[in-house]
Design brief:
2 copies of one chain form a homodimer.
Chain A (H helix, E strand, L loop, with lengths): L2 E3 L3 E4 L19 E6 L15 E7 L9 E2 L8 E2 L12 E12 L2 E5 L7 E8 L2 H4 L11 H9 L3
Chain lengths: 155, 155
């Protein structure tokens, strides 16, 4: 079963292809970006302006080869593609939760963007802590714990 | 530009089509489900078992008509499709963050599932608070605030 999807707009960001300053995740980014929704979908933005954070789904159009094991940005040992966030996935769908600063017509100013300029947009969903992270307190982050949490603790 | 994607497996859940007991979001669900990854992708699960929570992307195969405004489950006034989480979206991609209980080969036991039985699976990503919700403290949830937060406060 093949499924057809289509971009509904695109994301403008300060990060050009292969930019070495590209933040690897929204949690590490203060960058502003603009989400431009094709005008035919404008009506779908109604009442989105009440949300402070949105979930962006987009297409990793710069991904290269599909690989089941891949070396992530933060480690030098390959991991399973479903244990990392790298673009070279079976379905190249990326996800970022960003701050929604302002909506002006079909243009959304967002903060915390971590995608390349002109990334094709697939979906926008409101981020709702009561839906998305309700009851999530202790989390284990596997191989990333060594890379992220030790750093935070000065280790 | 059309994009082709393909299911990489499916999700088994206790919820049959049109089940009225279906939880509307993972935050409201204690239900267990099983994510079955096609065996050809088995290698991609390597090192996923260290993560306590995962992000599931899946295909809303029970969605009906694409609508830009739609009445959400929790309100009787239609909202823009990008301000709600309803399946009838331009690209019918669903997202749930669930607890990863156990991995047995290509089968993942998860808790907090909110999808119909046999939902096509598109992607699995590790949930990483440092990436996904870092710096997110105060959130505004627009039209949902009246529906969710007043209830929590006994209002």
């Amino acid at each position: 079963m093949d499924i057809l999807i289509k971009p509904i707009g695109f994301i403008e960001s300060p990060f050009e292809k292969k930019d070495e300053d590209m933040p690897i995740q929204p949690g590490f980014s203060d960058a502003f970006g603009t989400v431009i929704v094709n005008s035919e979908y404008l009506e779908g933005l109604s009442e989105l302006d009440g949300f402070s954070h949105i979930i962006l789904l987009y297409w990793f159009d710069q991904a290269t080869e599909e690989k089941l094991k891949f070396q992530p940005y933060l480690d030098d040992v390959p991991k399973g593609i479903f244990a990392i966030r790298h673009p070279n996935r079976p379905n190249r769908i990326g996800l970022s939760i960003v701050q929604l600063v302002k909506i002006d017509g079909n243009k959304l100013l967002v903060k915390g963007i971590d995608v390349f300029n002109n990334t094709p947009l697939l979906d926008i969903k409101p981020f709702v802590p009561e839906f998305d992270i309700h009851g999530i307190e202790d989390t284990q982050i596997g191989w990333l714990a060594d890379k992220l949490r030790k750093k935070e603790n000065g280790g």
